[in-house]
Amino acid sequence: MYKNTKPAYIRQSVLAFFLAAAFSACSNDDNDIVPVIPPSDGAELKLDGGGGAGAPNAVYVDFSADKPTAVPRTSWDLGFYNGNDFRVVLNYTSSISIAALAKTDITQVDLDDTTGISLAIGQGQGTLSMIDDITGDISKTAIAAVSATDADNKVYLVKPETASATDHTSWYKIKISRNGSGYKLQYAKLAETSIRTADMSKDENFNFSFFSLNGGKAVAAEPKKAEWDIQWSYGVYSTAFGPEVIPYLFSDFVYSNTLGGVQAAEATTADGFNYDTFKATDLSNTRLVFSGARDAIGSKWRVTSGGTLGIKTDRFYVIKDGAGNHYKLKFISAGIGQDGGQRGYPEIAYKLIK
Amino acid sequence: MKQLTALFICGLLCHESMAQDTTVQLRDVVVTGQYQQQSVKNSVYKVRTISSERIQLRGATDVLGVLNNELGIRFSNDATLGETDVELMGMSGQSVKVLLDGVPLVDRGSTKQSLSQIDVNTIERIEIVEGPMSVIYGTDALAGVINIITKKRTEHLTVTARAQEETVGREYRPLDGKGLHSEHLGLQWGNGKWFAGGGFTRTDFGGWQGQFTGRKKEWHPKNQYLANGIIGYGGHQWEAWYRLDYLDESIKSLGDINTGNYRSTDQYYNTNRYTHQLQGSWKPTERLSFNGALSYQDYTRKTKTNIKDFRTNTETRSQDDGAQDLSKFNMLFFRGTVQYKLSDAVMLQPGIEIKRDGSSGQRIEGSPVINDYAVFVSSELKPVSWLNIRPGLRFIHNSVYSAPPVIPSINTKWAFNKDMDLRVSYARGFRAPALRELYFYFFDASHSIKGNPALKAEYSHSVNGSFTWQALRRGELRYTVALSGFYNDFDNLIDIGYSAADPTISTYINVNKFRTTGGMLEHTLSWKALEAGVGLVWVGRYNRFSDDTAYNKTTATPAFVWTPEVNANISYRFRRLGATLNVFYKYTGERPTYELAAINNVEVVHLAKTAAFHYADVTASKRITPYLTLNAGVKNLFDVDRLKNTAADAGQAHSTGGPVLMWYGRSYFLGLNFRWAKK
């Protein structure tokens, strides 16, 4: 039946086939979008974190002076409070951990005192008692208030971020006492017998005076307390781990200058706020709730695991600095998800609200 | 709608309609696990087969598109990487062995991407065996084996070509890459003792935007070029052939434009695969035969991350950790077997297997090499004509981990009469620790994970049974019913835990247990032009909390969570018209999983459920000239995209809450198949 018409079928078949193939062959054009780009609308900063999820620098930002200050985040271990109380904080921008001993004489402490003590922190390890209060409440430090009665001041075992959880010889022992209006720090590596001493005096221009155990000296880290508003860094916070809440180290954490009187509020589009149109009259909106806690911004501005990664674009922050100025702040990129940024070099934009 | 119109214009070009008989050859010959080619009925294993005709009728453009309505098979999609893993009878891909002509395919991690990197046009049939086949196939063959058999020998010159246009959900445009476009050209030639062949396929998947906006897509665009060639020579007593398969795959994940900085982060994953294999057989006498397979595989995967700046229209490479990477895997493999017939009642098959795996790249410490040596032996005993007993043993030595000393199995087949067969088997299965589990290395701000070279193999005890009854065989009417059941007990499963030496480091440890059990009932009916199959499977997966005394006090939970599946395939052949009409349907029931969740700050055992779904394809094919067949159809008729999932988002790292992306909605396809053979 087909015999006579066979060549025609072949031709039709081949023709139809190649037409279909041609149809789809040139279908991979990449006509990318060309967006309309408006002019810049205010101050933008790229913070020099030094790169990576565990970026080496902590960056303080002073909005009123348009000034970022990058400091190596593990450059200090202990911060001696310059306020009225005698308190010592741990470096919250590192994974330093601490445990109190019953002993009060540092010369009596050696490697044997580590029995039953783990200073492992992070990766699901550790307890909140190893670190200071995560909201920055100065009355809840891991090291007890330094007593005027020196017999009450205990010796602490300290594992800085650079030390090993399993090698106890890399740990430090410390004891802090009052020294007139200042502090006296006694410290040594755990296995060492010669105890070193440092005197730390109070300087009310700063929240804290800092000391580096590895460096064996007082160091400068934080700008003057009136000269920074927020700090971006890798640092310690907490997470739910089963039924418990444990310390967890966060990348891109944003701390407020709590002791410097800085407050922050989150403004979401769900509450009707818009970064571009936000103005002074919006400050009285009752949906804007200011918080003086150190973690008021924290990690709330981005998603790093689970669903859609990246900066939450439905929110920005309103900051009230110690002098009473209000700024609006938004995060532009952090190298999370596909935001066009680089991890460890976050970009922020902020504007004074007049 | 415009797109769809364009799609169907192709259809109008092919207006001829001619009557031509299509006879589907019922190929019931299988090779997986066999001493020599064997009929499905006589096989000591219960083997499921999927023919190339089925692949064509389904309009499948990859292997996943064929497997997706098989009972006991479920997919899980990794939307970030654009990859899909396969689950067989409740066990994930790392327990499923994927073979190409009996040779294991390299995969870089635990997911079996290799399944979607095989040219579907070169497949003769797919054989699926459930239950462990570790004696002959070694590691990973715990849940079962998927063996892809390629087309080899023809007597004549044959030219095949195929072009298929398909929508991706509602997305299709002939000119800008949206939709799915696949073309294939193949040649096969045979002349006396020589045979050769080759093929080329391009499959361009345009991705699917889904809920995303701008440049970002929920399903990443993927473009595959696949090529293969085979040359062989063989006479009566021996045959040898060499085959090369090549793959070039690029997956593109464009980020949306960040309107804060007018930049985007774009990721590109490029995979190259060379699969060489040389296989031979020699049968000097009726009693003796030799088989050998030698394979070298080279797999590289390149990750590229660019930051595109739309203000300056420039692209720079991202400096982030892991943003740029080249991972390499290679494998050298040899398996040799001897089949020796001692008598009509006793047949022996000793064999050896040598495997060398090498790797390097991101998150792999150094450039490790693993050598694996195995000796195995099995025999087929037929003490009486109706009984077939096949005991087997495998002995393993591995250069890195301490391999299980011996893996046993015993398979039996009882033919009650010519229509009734019972198969009962016990087998041990094992999975060697993978390269990444031995040599993983990932340290950053929130991860300290290291591989563990002291790992042991995962192993399983499995019992399988099946009863097949050819209930009706009268004239053109055939009806077969098969009832089967399985029970698998897995131990030493590898999971992440804390290192005993340093609790600040996570590592891989042999810690978990798992069990699967279930039953399957299959009916197949063939009557004149009608072929139909209806199946039901009930897969039970172990709930680890049932044996946990701590949680059982507060919440007693059952040992197994069950998911039912039903499938139905109906094919009707209009002989006079040269046409077929087919319905492929599968129902996958709700999938429950017990998980730990912190609800109101109290940790409880919570029953999470992934929603049930219906999947159906309706396809038709029509021979329009003696050489050309048109096929068209609707895939995913029930328009499934994502499945509701009630996993509690406990606010922990790597939470898996939220809907599960399964498909991209209803699609339409139109394809042309050309086949010409020199008479």
From TrEMBL, chain A:
<dbReference type="Pfam" id="PF14064">
    <property type="entry name" value="HmuY"/>
</dbReference>
<feature type="signal peptide">
    <location>
        <begin position="1"/>
        <end position="27"/>
    </location>
</feature>
<dbReference type="InterPro" id="IPR025921">
    <property type="entry name" value="HmuY"/>
</dbReference>
<keyword id="KW-0732">Signal</keyword>
<protein>
    <recommendedName>
        <fullName>Heme-binding HmuY-like protein</fullName>
    </recommendedName>
</protein>
From TrEMBL, chain B:
<comment type="similarity">
    <text>Belongs to the TonB-dependent receptor family.</text>
</comment>
<keyword id="KW-0812">Transmembrane</keyword>
<keyword id="KW-0472">Membrane</keyword>
<dbReference type="Pfam" id="PF00593">
    <property type="entry name" value="TonB_dep_Rec_b-barrel"/>
</dbReference>
<dbReference type="Pfam" id="PF07715">
    <property type="entry name" value="Plug"/>
</dbReference>
<feature type="domain" description="TonB-dependent receptor plug">
    <location>
        <begin position="41"/>
        <end position="145"/>
    </location>
</feature>
<keyword id="KW-0813">Transport</keyword>
<dbReference type="InterPro" id="IPR037066">
    <property type="entry name" value="Plug_dom_sf"/>
</dbReference>
<keyword id="KW-0998">Cell outer membrane</keyword>
<keyword id="KW-0798">TonB box</keyword>
<keyword id="KW-0675">Receptor</keyword>
<dbReference type="GO" id="GO:0015344">
    <property type="term" value="F:siderophore uptake transmembrane transporter activity"/>
</dbReference>
<dbReference type="InterPro" id="IPR036942">
    <property type="entry name" value="Beta-barrel_TonB_sf"/>
</dbReference>
<keyword id="KW-0732">Signal</keyword>
<dbReference type="GO" id="GO:0044718">
    <property type="term" value="P:siderophore transmembrane transport"/>
</dbReference>
<dbReference type="InterPro" id="IPR000531">
    <property type="entry name" value="Beta-barrel_TonB"/>
</dbReference>
<feature type="domain" description="TonB-dependent receptor-like beta-barrel">
    <location>
        <begin position="369"/>
        <end position="637"/>
    </location>
</feature>
<dbReference type="InterPro" id="IPR039426">
    <property type="entry name" value="TonB-dep_rcpt-like"/>
</dbReference>
<protein>
    <submittedName>
        <fullName>TonB-dependent receptor</fullName>
    </submittedName>
</protein>
<keyword id="KW-1134">Transmembrane beta strand</keyword>
<dbReference type="InterPro" id="IPR012910">
    <property type="entry name" value="Plug_dom"/>
</dbReference>
<dbReference type="GO" id="GO:0009279">
    <property type="term" value="C:cell outer membrane"/>
</dbReference>
